Amino acid sequence: MTLPNVHMHKHPKVQSFFDAQSNTISYVVQDPDSTSCAIIDAVMNFDYASGRLSYDSADEIIAFIEQEGLTLDWIIETHVHADHLSGAPYIQQKLGGKIGIGEHIQTVQDTFGKIFNEGTEFQRDGSQFDALFKDGDSYHVGQLECFALHTPGHTPACMVHILGDAAFAGDTLFMPDGGSARADFPGGDAGQLYDSIQRILSLPDEMRLFVCHDYGPGGRAIAWETTIGAQRAANIHVGDGTSRDAFVKMRTERDAQLAMPQLIIPSLQVNIRAGEVPRDEAGNMSLKVPVNKL
Ligand SMILES: [Fe+2]
């Protein structure tokens, strides 16, 4: 349960971008002491009915970075998303930066390599990414020392990233009234998710926490910023000392009711390749639909 020596006196500016199709919030995080920045969880738009890609969400982020005169150091994926396609390679092509994800991507690639019957040319060693983070690894955005914490449960490769006094939850916790992420995808585990969340909750109370998704429960306006203290006190799934057994029971029952995300099939095939769309023998971008596998 060791936690890094976080830098609570560093207060990076955080700009959010909301993707309404997948209810994803992407972030640009700026080093307070330089013009460097990082992107957390960028989206590439995909219309499933027509099989057509578009880049409005990514272009909005690119325009912001250019307008602010920032240098992009990192493009972080908190995990292999199942609900949207990653915009990382499109942004990297325009602005540079390194694409990083958790080292357990290898497990996720192995699992979905089988489900999608990928050939031997699909590497399962994470080599599609520029960096694979281990638990507790640090890296820099400009002068700012940042940390990656391994937080499995939703998926085996999930990580929470800490940049100064701001933590990026990925799919672990949602807003306090939204609870927690599901744990029923292949490789998911509700008990592991509980343990990961306990680790997050032991970060400093005043640390800002930015969530990856919000669905506006009860009709409230979409929100994405909370604090560790607010989560510990009031998160509807884990707040106020909820036990591991109670959480696992609740999570398992709830997950059994949830439909698969609309874009899970295209998202996984693209995101296990660091956001690159697979190609057929003729070299055309093409996706599979495995039947009765998910
Ligand atoms: Fe996710």
Short description:
The chain has one domain (13-271): Metallo-beta-lactamase, Chain A (4-Layer Sandwich), CATH 3.60.15.10.
Going by CATH, the architecture would be 4-Layer Sandwich
Secondary-structure class: alpha/beta
Summed up, the domain count is: 1
Shape: globular
By CATH reckoning, the class would read Alpha Beta
CATH homology superfamily? Ribonuclease Z/Hydroxyacylglutathione hydrolase-like
Main sheet: strand order: 1-2-3-6-8-9
Order of helical and strand elements: EEEEEHEEHEHEEEEEHEEHHH
Beta fraction: 15-25%
Cα-based radius of gyration, to the nearest Å = 18 Å
Bound molecules: fe (ii) ion
GO molecular function: metal ion binding; sulfur dioxygenase activity
Domain Metallo-beta-lactamase: 23-213
InterPro entries: Metallo-B-lactamas (IPR001279), Mito_Persulfide_Diox (IPR051682), POD-like_MBL-fold (IPR044528), RibonucZ/Hydroxyglut_hydro (IPR036866)
Keywords: Metal-binding
Task: Tell me what you see in this structure.
This protein is an alpha/beta fold and 294 residues long. It has one domain: Metallo-beta-lactamase, Chain A (4-Layer Sandwich), CATH 3.60.15.10. The protein has helices at 56-68, 88-95, 105-115, 190-201, 228-234, 244-257, 264-271, and strands at residues 13-19, 24-30, 36-40, 43-47, 52-54, 71-76, 85-86, 98-102, 131-133, 138-141, 144-150, 159-163, 166-168, 208-210, 225-227. Helix 1 runs parallel beside helix 2 and helix 4 (190-201) crosses helix 6 (244-257). The longest helix is centred in the C-terminal third of the chain and has 14 residues, at 244-257. The mean pLDDT is 97. It binds fe (ii) ion. This is Metallo-beta-lactamase domain-containing protein. Residues 23-213 form the Metallo-beta-lactamase domain. Keywords: Metal-binding.
